Structures are given as structure tokens and as C-alpha cells.
């Protein structure tokens, strides 16, 4: 059962029973009833079976899904163990993967739980990120013709983005 529910199947101009809502979203009927009784999903009236407007269901699911999202600042990684955005421990990160398209994968440690943190960045984001933390470049470039180029270095003191060739 998904924790985030998709809204693309919901028709805003239709009425749904709790059974139809459950089938539509891939949830149990009891879950939908709990949404009505405890979490404020609006119904058409107080009669049973409960009827839910598609527009009300769409807004409810949209709010419910967005409540779980957490935005990270440019210099932060999302720690899946702490379930919170965290800066890199010791203000150090490694560029561990480099793509020919100009992006790269940064890796760091969580300062709270010492778990591995990862974040994909573009060249522009990399330049801004390196203002907040020291980045050691330990990347391998994968090009389109399947050749691998080793890149080792440090981002400090460079005038151009190390993600570009």
C-alpha cells in the first residue's frame, strides 16, 4: 500500500463511494473511512454510504502528499535514517560519479547518524555547493562511447566547473 497516493486517476466532477476511492487509490476501505472520520475528508452529506466529491478527494490527497515532502537547501542532503535534511559532516563531500551530460553525484556523511548521503547536482549547483563545503573530486566520467576517464582532484581554487570537460 503506497504512502503517497497518485491523483491522476481522480475525476474531479464525479462522486465516489469509500469502496470506489479505495479501489481507485489502491488503499483499504478502512483507510478511506479513517480519512473521513479523523482527518477531515469532506463528504457530500452524513448518509451512509459516504459519497466523496472528486474535487474534494483530489485536494485532500494533494495536501496529504505535500505534507510529507521536505525541501533541502542547496548545501543539504536528505538523510533517510534521520528523515531530515542535513548538511555534510565536517563540511566535506566527494564527487563520486560524473556524467558526460554535465551532472554529478555528491556523497557525504550525515553529521548526526554518520549514514551515507547522496545528492545529484548540475554544474551550476556544484559551483554554488562548493561555496559551502570542500568537495574532493573522486569521479569517473562515463562518456557516450563507453570510455571511462578517471578524474581525481580538488574543487578548491578552480575557476571552472570540474563537471565540464
Automatic annotation (TrEMBL):
Domain of life: Bacteria
Helix-turn-helix domain span: 15-61
Name this polypeptide is given: Helix-turn-helix domain-containing protein
Amino acid at each position: 500500500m503506497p504512502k503517497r497516493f497518485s491523483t491522476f486517476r481522480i475525476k474531479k466532477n464525479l462522486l465516489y463511494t469509500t469502496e470506489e476511492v479505495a479501489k481507485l487509490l489502491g488503499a483499504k476501505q478502512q483507510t478511506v473511512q479513517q480519512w473521513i472520520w479523523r482527518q477531515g475528508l469532506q463528504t457530500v452529506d452524513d448518509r451512509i454510504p459516504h459519497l466523496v466529491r472528486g474535487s474534494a478527494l483530489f485536494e485532500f490527497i494533494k495536501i496529504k502528499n505535500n505534507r510529507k515532502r521536505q525541501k533541502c537547501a542547496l548545501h543539504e542532503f536528505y538523510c533517510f535514517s534521520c528523515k531530515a535534511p542535513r548538511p555534510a559532516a565536517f563540511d566535506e563531500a566527494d564527487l563520486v560519479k560524473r556524467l558526460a551530460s554535465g551532472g554529478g553525484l555528491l556523497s557525504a556523511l550525515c553529521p548526526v547518524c554518520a549514514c551515507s548521503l547522496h545528492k545529484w547536482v548540475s554544474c551550476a549547483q556544484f559551483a554554488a555547493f562548493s561555496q559551502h563545503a570542500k568537495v574532493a573530486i573522486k569521479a569517473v566520467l562515463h562518456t557516450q562511447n563507453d570510455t571511462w576517464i578517471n578524474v581525481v582532484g580538488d574543487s578548491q581554487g578552480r575557476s571552472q566547473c570540474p563537471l565540464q570537460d
